[in-house]
Structures are given as C-alpha cells and as structure tokens.
C-alpha cells in the first residue's frame, strides 16, 4: 500500500519569514545601522556587549539563512486546486443559523 506524502505549508511559511527577517537585518547592517553602536554613550561594558551581540547575530544568521533556503527549496508547496462546492449567500447564512459547521 502506497502512502501519499502530506504537505505541511507551515514549515515553508516559517522558512520564508526567516529569510525575510535575515535579509532585513543584513540590509540594516549594510546601510549603516551598525554605526548606531558608535552613538552609545554609556559605559564601555555596554558598548562591548552590544558589539558582542551584533557579532553573534551575524554569525548565527548565516547558517540560519542557509537552512531556511534549503527548507524553501525542499518543501515548496505543489500548486493544487481544490474545488469547493458552490454555495449561495443565502445557503451559507442558513447553515450558520442551523448551527452546522461550515
């Protein structure tokens, strides 16, 4: 008995969102957002922590982006068309009034 492969679009959507967030971070970084760290007028400890945090995010974003792109490629949803039964507005309203699940 052959089993049909199930599609899980949520993983694809999460991977796509992660790629968008990482791309926005790198755009912020390239367009001078990291220069705002120089505007920190706090203690040297705060500046070191900010630079360390930025370095960690840069190093973590590279493999995360690669894994997200691999997930996008491997789990691309198939274009399937599901035909639903046509109902008029009055039939849909009648179903809601009867309490039946729509």
From TrEMBL:
Cell location: Membrane
Matching SUPFAM superfamilies: Cation efflux protein transmembrane domain-like (SSF161111)
This protein's UniProt keywords: Membrane, Transmembrane, Transmembrane helix
Cellular component terms per the entry's GO annotation: membrane
Membrane-topology annotation of the record: Multi-pass membrane protein
Main subcellular localisation: membrane
InterPro entries (UniProt xref): Cation_efflux_TMD_sf
Superkingdom of this protein's organism: Bacteria
Transmembrane segments: 20-40, 52-74
UniProt key word Transmembrane: yes
Name used for this protein in its record: Uncharacterized protein
Organism for this UniProt entry: Arthrobacter echini
């Amino acid at each position: 008995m052959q089993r049909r492969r199930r599609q899980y679009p949520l993983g694809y959507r999460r991977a796509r969102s992660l790629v968008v967030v990482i791309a926005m971070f790198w755009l912020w970084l390239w367009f001078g957002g990291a220069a705002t760290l120089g505007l920190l007028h706090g203690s040297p400890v705060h500046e070191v922590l900010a630079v360390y945090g930025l370095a960690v995010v840069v190093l973590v974003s590279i493999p995360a982006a690669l894994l997200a792109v691999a997930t996008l490629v491997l789990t691309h949803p198939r274009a399937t068309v599901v035909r639903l039964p046509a109902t008029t507005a009055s039939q849909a309203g009648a179903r809601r009034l009867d309490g039946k699940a729509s």
